[in-house]
Amino acid sequence: MAEQVIAREKPFILHFITTQKHFSPFDANMACDAGFDSIFTYTDVTLDEITGLVQDAIFSRGPRGVWRTGIFIGGRDMDMAMEMMATAKKAMFPPFQVSLFADPAGAFTTGAALSAYVVSTSREHFNTNLKDKRVVVFGATGPVGGCASIMCAKEGADVRIVAHADVEKTTKLAAKFSATYDVSLKCVDGTDDAKKAAIIADAEILLCCAAAGVRVITTEMLKNAKGLLIAADVNAVPPSGIEGLDAMSDALPIKGAEWALGLGALAIGSRKYNLQKKMFQISSVRLEIE
């Protein structure tokens, strides 16, 4: 009797590409927990190396294998990640196509989770959306703040990004984002506490996406923001970016500004975690050939 040969499915492989010196342990953990069997990392990668890396990854596995292959693009530069995504797409063709996922510095998943949380809170608690809402973003020069600014603008909000040090540089960034992503972002001068307070006083939605462990907004700055509906802070490292906003707050009143609802860093983070895990799971989904 002839020996029966049982075909073994190929493992799930993730190729992790970053422009940084090190790949992110956070993203590596997420990919493992989402189901990838092996993760291979490539650091200090430049744009002109993407085509070669992608084609090496796709041609070695065959049509069935590419279904079990993913490419993740990290780094910290949002624009570079988008360019790398576009280059990677051009390097592939049927049937040699794999899942692509970019999330530089967690900006796309964090920005998406934050924006979606603001939208859902607006609907559930205020029966409204972001159209024409005055949204102020602190830390918009970073990848998370920049991403959230763009996403809120896509929802129709009137988005102002705050320059805390260099007004000219932030103005140029607002213009660049506006042109690249077909939105309208404005820069406002927040180079001292009085200017910050004036900006906040006119805000309906306040997003704090500044560096971890830095207090950006005080209760004193919030006291005249009587039109404020929602304030969100992505900083989970003490002290909070917004004074009086607890990291666990899930649309609860802010201490010292109780008329507004606070979205805390850990509440935002749980949504970011679930979103990123789901994205990785989609990239490693087990598909069956008919």
Cα-based radius of gyration, to the nearest Å: 22 Å
Order of helices and strands: EHEHHEHEHEHEHEHEHEEEH
User: Can you tell me the residue ranges where pLDDT is under 50 for at least 5 consecutive residues?
Assistant: 1-7, 286-290
State the CATH class of the largest domain: Alpha Beta
Strand count: 11
Structure annotation, total helices: 10
Order of strands across the main sheet: 7-6-5-8-9-11-10
Helix coverage percent = 40-55%
| CATH fold group of the largest domain | Rossmann fold
- Kindly, what is the distance between the CA atoms of the first and last residues, rounded to a whole number of angstroms? 29 Å
Shape: elongated
Name some characteristics of this structure.
2 domains, Rossmann fold, 7-stranded mixed β-sheet, alpha/beta, 4-stranded parallel β-sheet, 290 residues, elongated, disordered C terminus, 19% strand, 11 strands
What does this structure look like?
- By secondary structure, this protein is of the alpha/beta class.
- The chain has two domains: 13-102, 3-Layer(aba) Sandwich (Rossmann fold), CATH 3.40.50.10280; 107-270, NAD(P)-binding Rossmann-like Domain (Rossmann fold, 3-Layer(aba) Sandwich).
- The chain has ten helices and eleven strands.
- The chain has helices at residues 25-34, 50-59, 62-66, 78-90, 107-126, 143-154, 167-181, 193-201, 219-222, 265-283; strands at residues 13-17, 38-42, 69-73, 99-102, 134-138, 158-163, 185-189, 205-208, 230-233, 250-254, 257-263.
- It has a seven-stranded mixed β-sheet with strand order 7-6-5-8-9-11-10. Strands 2-1-3-4 form a four-stranded parallel β-sheet, sandwiched between helices.
